[in-house]
TrEMBL record:
The chain crosses the membrane at residues 35-53, 60-87, 93-115, 124-142, 148-167, 179-202, 208-226, 238-257, 263-281. Keywords: Membrane, Transmembrane, Transmembrane helix. PANTHER family: ACYL-MALONYL CONDENSING ENZYME-RELATED (PTHR22911), BLR4310 PROTEIN (PTHR22911:SF135). GO terms for cellular component: membrane. The keyword Transcription does not apply. It comes from Roseicyclus persicicus. This is DMT family transporter. It comes from the Bacteria. Residues 5-138 form the EamA domain. InterPro entries: EamA_dom, EmrE-like. Pfam families: EamA.
Length: 294
């Protein structure tokens, strides 16, 4: 695959992911646990079909190949998916997605603590800048009653960090079987929490449609495009391309629904974006061809 094709696929994935906030705002009555259940259900067939086609029908073998680390990573996705749903339901889209963007920095810290991976000085500087942006946003949320949503967004970022680090520890190159496990675990967790709260997973047909559509199209579809495109794009540039999601998600809800963000959210979000750019942009050495082994 050529670099240009890979970059286009990754940007298309970011575009799909950026539409999730707008889809969330169409849901009228379903609570976060019900949304998590139906969104996960919509995601699973698409990912399972992609894994089966790519692996020539060896779906079960691919999932079992994820092993213990895949299971742990899948459990981390309960917090990643559940925290994201709650955050978007509890605060503005801008607030949520800017805090989701902290995931690469939490991943670097966790990999340093658990795997002993060296963290370059540039990354430490980026983490410090991102922490400042997070502090601005969380502090601003205290006055607007969005603290719970902010904390949920950070728990989502932490869940993704756990998922990434456990797969890295196990040497698992393909994250999709772990994501399938995460979807199954999220459905189980959503059903259990709904039962404990005395609620119901039954939702209106429109709410079910939006939740299933998010899982099948924006979430799973984006992950398939990202997986394909990432094979031809260096990791640092992947970070830059996925910033498109962070920038577009607040734009769509502002354009269509008129949802705006507070000054603290915008200020903190810009600081986090600057930290991402600082981490991703590195001086090139030589004329290495962008790409990754298949």
């Amino acid at each position: 695959m050529r670099y240009g094709t890979g970059a286009a696929l990754v940007m298309a994935a970011a575009l799909l992911w950026s539409l999730q906030g707008l889809a969330f705002r169409q849901i009228e009555a379903a609570d976060p646990w019900a949304i998590l259940f139906w969104r996960s259900l919509g995601m699973l067939p698409v990912l399972a079909l992609f894994i089966a086609v790519r692996g020539r029908g060896r779906l079960v073998a691919a999932i079992l190949g994820a092993g213990r680390d895949g299971v742990i990573g899948g459990l981390g996705l309960i917090f990643a998916f559940g925290g994201a749903v709650y955050a978007i339901q509890s605060t503005t889209i801008a607030n949520a997605v800017f805090l989701f963007a902290a995931s690469p920095f939490l991943t670097a810290l966790l990999a340093w603590a658990v795997l002993g991976e060296r963290v370059p000085a540039r990354t430490w500087a980026s983490i410090g800048v991102a922490a400042l942006g997070i502090a601005v946003m969380v502090w601003g949320g205290l006055d607007r009653g969005a603290l719970a949503g902010n904390l949920a967004a950070l728990s989502s970022a932490a869940g993704f960090a756990v998922f990434t680090v456990t797969l890295r520890r196990g040497g698992i190159r393909d994250p999709l079987p772990g994501v399938v496990l995460g979807g199954v675990f999220s459905m189980i967790a959503a059903a259990a929490m709904t039962g404990l709260a005395g609620g119901t997973l039954a939702v209106t047909l429109p709410d079910a449609g939006w939740s299933l559509g998010m899982g099948a199209v924006t979430l799973a579809g984006g992950m398939v495009l990202y997986t394909l495109g990432s094979r031809a794009v260096p990791a640092a540039e992947l970070t830059l391309f996925t910033m498109l999601e962070v920038m577009l998600a607040p734009f769509w809800v502002w354009l269509v629904l008129g949802e705006t963000a507070s000054r603290a959210t915008l200020a903190g979000g810009l600081v986090i974006l600057a930290a991402m750019a600082l981490s991703a942009i590195r001086p090139r050495r030589g004329a290495a061809v962008p790409g990754a082994p298949a």
